[in-house]
Design goal:
The chain has 458 residues and is α/β, with parallel strands linked by helices. The protein contains 14 helices and 13 strands. The relative contact order is 0.11.
Length: 458
């Protein structure tokens, strides 16, 4: 097992990269950073096996190398406020630095702890063309000793992180959980890190059994490779190299295994729906799949509730991959994420699975989302803004081509007048839709109240 040191202080900047840009203390939380280091193994599929469609993959050790990485821990200051569940988030690195997508207000409202794990080389070293965003260049005095050889070792790094913070963690010489009694540990990943996490679930979890549940967001149906054939080429770790590599792990190419007797919860937006459609199996006692109509992969996150660290740490005020001239989707999947996390806690502690939800309706050959007269997808989880719309919200275009940032195109006044007798008529229907979403279990009351309050101000 890796060696843990910390809490880490100092450095040229004096704070951890990604430190909370909101008042954690006011929420009753403590934030600390730790380094962990040792030898990590890399894996391969045993001879004669591979990435089978059923997702029931095998892995064997193919080598080892030294590593040193970091984790950022946020935990309740009062042990009595801790709900017993730790969310271990595999940091997304698709933009060349650690991104904590998947963090949710429900983490702090619900009394969870969260560990933000730097499992991949890019988070530590950055893209070769932008090393200044990697930890080792961002603050050389603080992070200069960190090192990850390549992403083939990320799976074991994630395992070792989980064991250092989970229920059976060593508590000496330092306990990163501050003495909290961790009962359950959840592996979570979003988008790019969901791709890594699914491969972990399919191939590594059966042998290591480190995590008690998996919470996977925005997943296209393609797990990452165990062995990246270009992992030792330092010039391939750039955004423009994602698509060639994706051809080796095509979307919708395999299932997520659900035979391990632990909860697996996948939450998708409309954007992933077409590519993921071939591999969305029925719900079961250990598997839930939620799909949100009218919301896009890159829809606004929970930034209005959880301030981003990017303006402070990197001087970034918007998502750099988003086109400037598009009518981006203005909705957010965050409140559904909060509801899902609340259900996952009950699933883990009481054995009560989340409610089954309708999925986006498909028809045609090739299958494409069915749409109403206004171009809004039918079926799926429907936020009040989609159930009682004043705009066309999409995550894929009319031909089923994904739109990473989607669209939100306001209806004309003529359309609004045909749909609603008056502003009061719309408000009443909107409030009823929010109430129905709470009753269906896809919104928590606190989030429904905020959605209604924001909507009726317009």
């Amino acid at each position: 097992m890796a060696t843990l040191t910390g809490p880490i202080t100092g450095g040229d900047r004096g704070w951890p990269f990604g430190a909370a840009a909101f008042d954690l203390a006011a929420l009753g939380y403590i934030e600390e950073e730790y380094f962990f280091e040792g030898d990590a193994v890399r894996y391969r599929h045993p001879q004669g096996t591979g990435r089978s469609f059923d997702g029931k993959w095998s892995a064997e050790i193919a080598g080892s190398a030294p590593f040193k990485s970091r984790m950022l821990i946020r935990r309740p200051a009062d042990p009595d406020k801790f709900n017993g569940t730790l969310v271990s988030l595999w940091n997304n690195v698709s933009r060349g630095f650690d991104i904590f997508v998947g963090e949710s207000p429900e983490i702090y409202r619900g009394g969870f702890a969260i560990a933000l794990i730097s499992a991949q080389r890019v988070g530590v070293h950055g893209f070769p063309l932008r090393p200044d965003r990697g930890l080792t260049e961002w603050d050389k005095a603080r992070y200069g000793s960190l090192s990850i050889p390549n992403d083939d070792y990320s799976y074991d790094i994630f395992t070792q992180a989980g064991r250092l913070i989970g229920p059976d963690r060593p508590r000496v010489p330092v306990d990163p959980m501050g003495g909290l009694k961790v009962r359950k540990i959840v592996a979570a990943g979003v988008s790019q890190s969901a791709v890594k996490l699914v491969t972990y679930l399919n191939a590594i979890q059966p042998a290591e059994e480190t995590f008690d549940a998996f919470f996977i967001h925005l997943f296209f149906g393609n797990g990452a490779l165990l062995e990246d054939p270009r992992a030792d080429d330092p010039m391939v770790k750039r955004v423009e190299d994602i698509m060639p590599l994706a051809k080796m792990m095509p979307a919708g190419s395999h299932l997520v295994r659900d035979d391990l007797g632990i909860p697996v919860f996948i939450m998708n937006s409309e954007t992933e729906s077409v590519l993921h459609y071939p591999v969305r199996p029925p719900d079961s006692d250990t598997y839930r799949f939620w799909e949100i109509a009218g919301v896009a992969h890159g829809s606004a996150t929970g930034a209005s509730k959880i301030a981003s660290n990017e303006p402070r740490d990197l001087g970034i005020n918007r998502h750099e991959m988003a086109p400037d001239d598009a009518p981006h989707n203005v909705l957010t999947h965050e409140p559904v994420n909060s509801a899902a996390l609340s259900h996952l806690q009950r699933w883990l502690t009481e054995g009560v699975p989340p409610p089954v939800q309708p999925r986006i309706a498909f028809a045609g050959d090739p299958p494409r989302p069915m749409r109403d007269a206004h171009g809004i997808a039918l079926g799926g989880i429907r936020l009040p803004q989609v159930a009682v719309p004043t705009a066309r919200h999409t995550g894929v275009d009319a031909d089923g081509v994904l739109e990473m940032f989607g669209t939100s195109v306001p209806f004309s006044n003529d359309v609004l007048h045909r749909l609603y007798a008056s502003p009061a008529d719309w408000r009443g229907k909107f409030e009823n839709a929010a109430k129905a979403a709470v009753e269906a279990g896809v919104l928590l009351q606190v989030d429904a109240d905020q959605i209604v309050a924001e909507a009726v101000k317009i």
